[in-house]
Design brief:
The chain is mostly beta strands. It is built from no helices and ten strands. A hairpin with a 4-residue loop joins β6 and β7 (75-79).
Amino acid sequence: MPNGNIYYCHNTKDPFFFLPKQNDTASAVGSIQVQGCVGPALLSNGQVLFLGGTLQEVYGPGSKKVKTFDSFTNKWMDQPDLLDYRWYPTVVPLFDQRLLVVGGGGLNNPLRVKTSEIYDPF
């Protein structure tokens, strides 16, 4: 992260942050809804985008939910949904700052989504 912290996801929970200077961890609290098993992307403005995943405390089903985490303010913000349900999607940054979001588990996980979509975070 731009602030020096390292984020990581654990099971079906929102991410945790490793704080190297303190040799400690912290949760990224304040999210309206837990969203685990996401496809993450670090944006050029320093925010982390969380795409898809699941909104449950158990594995699957997939979600359309998208939200950002601002590591400077420690605040979450909901973003426009994906077009399809995606649990653990693959996220590929494109040259124009849009994202290619591919596959993942669907609404009826473990059935896989056989589509891709372009997501514009800006």
